[in-house]
Amino acid sequence: MTAPEEPTTPDTPTPEASGAGPAPDGAAQPAATTDVPGTGSAPQPEPAADPAAPGEPVAAEAEAPAPEAAPEPDYKDQYLRAVAETDNVRKRARRDVEVAHGRGVAKLAKELLPALDNLERALAAAEAQEGDEHQLTSGIRLVQQELIAALGRVGIVQDAPKGAAFDPHRHEAIAQMPAEGVASGTITEVYSAGYLLGDDVLRAAKVVVAQ
């Protein structure tokens, strides 16, 4: 029988064999550390860099496009608009003044017309009674003519349309009578004269119309 072989151990390199000499006297030997599973401290991850922290480099953000400059106002256009608006205001004011003036004249004339009518009737009565023209009759006629002329200076015109065709917009028929040799619809007599202010009828003439 053969004897059992003795176990062999691997050769452990000595410090001299590994090239490291013996530690000098008095030098501290590094402590041997042994990692024990479950007991050693795991490596901690490095904290992420805070981009907002002072002193830390911050990545340059994409620069926003610069805002476009506001267009320069068109001062010439603004000036022309202001001139046109001023002209419109001036025309409107002038028109309002003219309208107010016309209304005032019309109101005054309407108050005076009845007195003028009575003056004309008095003149007609005086002429019918006197064979020869009296000084009083001449004076009444002169006053009548002056009043009519004064109304004309402010744009009021007398409308006494004897012999003209009847116009319902300007005349008021108070009677219709047959008239020999006169066409139907012709004004044969004016009872009360009418008055016009431009195209406006202040008072319609009261007339007799032929049938």
TrEMBL record:
<feature type="compositionally biased region" description="Low complexity">
    <location>
        <begin position="47"/>
        <end position="69"/>
    </location>
</feature>
<keyword id="KW-0143">Chaperone</keyword>
<dbReference type="InterPro" id="IPR000740">
    <property type="entry name" value="GrpE"/>
</dbReference>
<dbReference type="GO" id="GO:0000774">
    <property type="term" value="F:adenyl-nucleotide exchange factor activity"/>
</dbReference>
<keyword id="KW-0346">Stress response</keyword>
<dbReference type="InterPro" id="IPR013805">
    <property type="entry name" value="GrpE_CC"/>
</dbReference>
<dbReference type="InterPro" id="IPR009012">
    <property type="entry name" value="GrpE_head"/>
</dbReference>
<comment type="similarity">
    <text>Belongs to the GrpE family.</text>
</comment>
<keyword id="KW-0963">Cytoplasm</keyword>
<dbReference type="GO" id="GO:0051082">
    <property type="term" value="F:unfolded protein binding"/>
</dbReference>
<comment type="subunit">
    <text>Homodimer.</text>
</comment>
<protein>
    <recommendedName>
        <fullName>Protein GrpE</fullName>
    </recommendedName>
</protein>
<dbReference type="GO" id="GO:0051087">
    <property type="term" value="F:protein-folding chaperone binding"/>
</dbReference>
<dbReference type="GO" id="GO:0006457">
    <property type="term" value="P:protein folding"/>
</dbReference>
<comment type="function">
    <text>Participates actively in the response to hyperosmotic and heat shock by preventing the aggregation of stress-denatured proteins, in association with DnaK and GrpE. It is the nucleotide exchange factor for DnaK and may function as a thermosensor. Unfolded proteins bind initially to DnaJ; upon interaction with the DnaJ-bound protein, DnaK hydrolyzes its bound ATP, resulting in the formation of a stable complex. GrpE releases ADP from DnaK; ATP binding to DnaK triggers the release of the substrate protein, thus completing the reaction cycle.</text>
</comment>
<dbReference type="Pfam" id="PF01025">
    <property type="entry name" value="GrpE"/>
</dbReference>
<dbReference type="GO" id="GO:0042803">
    <property type="term" value="F:protein homodimerization activity"/>
</dbReference>
<dbReference type="GO" id="GO:0005737">
    <property type="term" value="C:cytoplasm"/>
</dbReference>
<feature type="compositionally biased region" description="Low complexity">
    <location>
        <begin position="1"/>
        <end position="32"/>
    </location>
</feature>
<feature type="region of interest" description="Disordered">
    <location>
        <begin position="1"/>
        <end position="77"/>
    </location>
</feature>
